[in-house]
Amino acid sequence: MKPYLTCKNISKTFNGSPAVESVSIDLLPGEIMSILGPSGCGKTTLLRLIAGFETLDEGEIKIENNIISSNQTHLPPEKRNIGMVFQDYSLFPHMNVEQNITFGLQNYNQDEKEFRLQEILKLIQLVGFEKKLPAELSGGQQQRIALGRTLAPKPSLILLDEPFSNLDAVTRKEVMSDINQIILESKTASILVTHDREEAFSIANKLVVMINGKIFQMDNPSNIYNLPNNIEVAKLVADCNFIKGRIQNKEVVTDIGSFRYESTNKQISDKQIVNTLIRPDDFIITYDPNGSFKITAREFHGPYSISTVLSYQYGFSLKFRDQQNVSFPIGTNVNLIKTNNRNLVVFPK
Amino acid sequence: MIKSSKIHIPPLYILIPTIFTAIIMILPLLYLITRSIEASADTWISLFSIRSLQTLGRSLLLMSTVTLMSLIIAIPLAWCTARTNLPMRKIWTILVILPLVMPSFIAAFLFTSALGPKGLLQNLLEKPFGVKELPGLEGLIGATIVLALLSYPYIFLAIRGSINNIDPSIEESAKALGKNSLKVFTTITLPHIKPALIAGSLFVALYTLSDFGAVSMMRYNTFTWTIYQQYGSVIDRSASAALSIALVSTALIILILEQNIRGKEKYHRIGSGSSRKPKIINLGFWKYPITSFFVLIISAALIIPVSILVFWLFRGILNGESITLSLSTVLNSVIVSLIATLTTALLALVTAVKLIRYPSIMNRFMEPISFIGYALPGVVVGIALVFFGTRFAMPIYQSIFLLIIGYIILFFPVSLGIIRSSLMQINPRIEESAMSLKHNALSVLTKITIPLIKSGLLMSLSMVFLLTLKELPATLILGPLNFHTLATQVWSYSSEAYFAKSAFPSLLIIVLSIFPLTTIIWHDKRIYQ
Questions:
Q1: Do B251 and B290 belong to one domain?
Q2: Measured between beta carbons, which residues in chain A are less than 8 angstroms from residue B430?
Q3: How many angstroms separate the Cα of B2 from the Cα of each of A29, A154, B409?
Q4: Which residues of B touch A116 (CB under 8 A)?
Q5: Is the pTM of this model over 0.90?
Q6: If we measure between CA atoms, which residue out of B12, B193, B208, B218 comes closest to residue B106?
Q7: Is A240-348 in CATH node 3.30.9.100?
Q8: ipTM above 0.85, yes or no
C-alpha cells in the first residue's frame, strides 16, 4: 500500500536549538500511529509541522505524493484537510456545541450541515447537547466535542496532541477508550502524540519513540516493548531494571545468573560488557532463609505490589512484581527464579 | 503543483495598516529631529536658559505633586473597596471612577472661578461670615488639586485588580507570624501591587506632563502651556520646538526609568490569581471617617463641579443670557471623536495581531514606536502635524483628516495596550483549531478572534472616545478654521469668563462621556471582581 503521509528528513530549529532533527515517518491510509516521547522531545513540534502551523527548515512533507511542506513550499493549514485535536480542547468558548461542530462545514448546505451534526453527535454520544456552551460541559465531554468538531468535515488525517492529559485519572480511562472507539469507527488515519505509554499503546498500529528531536524506534507496539533499540526506549515503554552483564557462549552472564539474550544491535560480540534489561515480571521472588537477597522496600500499586530486593553480595537493588499478591515482609531473605522463556534484552555499554 | 505561501508572513490587510501606523506614530519624532537639525545656535541657547530650566522645574514639580496626591487618594480607595466591609462598596467602586469624565480645563476653570477671588464660594461666605477675599487657587496648588482629583482613577483602576489577586494565604501566613494589619499591608500587600502602582503612577505622571487644560487655566507655566504660548506668538517657532524637544525627552527619560524600575516585573500579569476570596476586614468605627473621605473626594472631583455647572447654566438662563450652541459643534465633537475612535481601535487591533501572532524583526521597531506615543503631549503632536501638513500635505492641512491623525497618534498607545492585553489572553490553539477547520486567516480573525476580544475592543473604543471628546490642545492647533468642538467652545467661552455659555458645552461633554464610561465599567473585570 502507498503511504498517505510521508515525512522525509524533516528538521525544525527554534532559536538555534533543534526541536525536530531529520525525522522520517510514513503513515498508511487508515493507520493509527502513536508518537511517544518525554516532554520537550519535539513530538508536538512534529505534529504542528504536519498540521502546517510551523514552517520546516529542511526536508519535505508529502500527502499522497503532493508536497505540502518543504523549505520552499508551505500549504496553509486550512488547505491541508488535516484535523487537529489539542491538549486543552480549544473549543470556541463563544459558540455552542452545534456551532462548534459545524464550524468546519462552511461548504455544506443547511440540510447537509444538520445531517452531519446529528451523525457526529451520535458518534460522540452527545445527542441533545446542541445548545450547550463549552463552559457548561465536563472535561471529558469537551474533549469528545473537540474530536467531533475535528471529524465533522471528514479530514483525511487527524492529529491528536496529548488529548487526554488534562483529564483526571478516572475520566481519562473512559474518554480514552471512547475516543479510541470513535477513531476506529471513523476509519481515519490518525497520529496521536503523548508522553504516556499506556495511551500510546492503547490504540496504535504503529508506535514511534521520539527522544531529543530524533526518532529512536518505529515499529508495532509489541515489537518495541519486547525488543527496544536502546536503554532510553526501554525506559520509556516499560518499568525496568538494568544490571551489568558479559557475553559468553551466546549467553549473558550476570550477577544473578546466565541467560539467553537478544538485541537489535548486531555488533554485540563475545566477551563484550553489556547492560542487561530485567523486567519486573522476568523473575519471581521465592522464600529462602539462606537466599542471597533481602527484601528492603515495597510499593503497593493496588492490583499488584513491587518489592525491592537487595543483593547481599553485590550491593545492587532490583524491583520485581510480587506473585499473586504474596508479599514477604521487609527484611525477609529471598532468592530469584526466572519464570518465563523470554530472552533478556541487552544493550552495548 | 500546490501554491506556496509562508505562514508567518502576515496578509496585506495586517501589514499595510501596521506600516501606516508606524509611519504616523513616528511623525512627531521626525519633526523634533528635523527641528533640532535645523535649529540655530540661539535655539539651543534658549533651551538651556534659566527660563527653560524653570519651566522644566515647574513641570517636574507638578508631575511629582500630582502623582503623589493621586496615590494618596487612590490607594485607600482601592484597598477599602476591595478588602473592607465599607458600606456600599460596589457603588463606591463605580462612583470613584466617574471623575474620568471631567476634562481638566473644565475642572480647573471651575476651581479658579468658583473658589477664587469674587467666586461662588466667596459669595456664599461673604454675607454670613464677612469673608472679603479668598486666597485663590491658581498656580501649583490649584493645578495639583485639580489634576490629582481627575487622574487618581487611572491608578485606582490599575491597582484594584492586583489587590484582588493577592493570594490570601500569603497575607494569612504573615498574620500567623504575628504581624499586625498595618505591617501586613506594608510588607505584603504593597510589594504585591507595586508593578500596578508603578504602571498607574507612570500613566498619571505622563498625563500630567502632557496636560494643557489645567495648567493653562491655572496660569502655571509648565512645558505645554509655554510651548502653546510661544507657538501662538508665531515670532519664534524654533523656541517652541526646542521646548518640545525638552518635554518629549523628559517624558522619554521617565518612561525608560520606569522600564528599568519595573525590570523583570514588566510582564507581571494582572488578571489571573487565586480563586479564593480574600478576607474582608471589618472597619468598625473607622467606616465613618473613611466614608467621609470617599464623600469628600467624590464631591470635590465630581458632584460640586457638576453642580456649579448646572447652577451657572440655570442662572444664565434666568438672567436671560443667550445660551446657544450650534448643533454643528456637537456633531463635530461626536463625529470626529467617533471616526478617530474607530480608526484608532482598528489600527490598534491590526497592530496587536501583528505583534502577537506574526513575530518578525519588524516587531522590534513597532514595540518602541507604539510605546513612545505615551510620551507625546497633544501640544507637540499638534505642532508637529502642522509642520508636516504645511510642508508635505497641503491638501489635508486645515482639514479634519490631520486632526484625526493627531488623535490617532495621541491615543493609539492606550488603545493598543487594552486590545493587546485581551488578545494575549486568547489561547492561540483556539485560532489554530479554526484554521485546521479550513478557515483562512481573515475568517479566523472575524469569526473567532474579534468575538473573543469583544470586551477589550469595547473598552478601547470607550476609552479613546472619552479621551478624544476631552482633548483640547491638539484640537485647538489642528482644527480647521471655524471648526468648533465642545472642548474648544468651552475653552473660548471660559477664557472670556462667560460662565453660563461655557457651562452648557461642558455639561454636554460630561453627559456624552457617560455612555463610554458605562461600557468601561461594564467590561472592566477589575471593577467587578
A1: yes
A2: 90-93
A3: 21, 21, 42
A4: none
A5: no
A6: B218
A7: no
A8: no
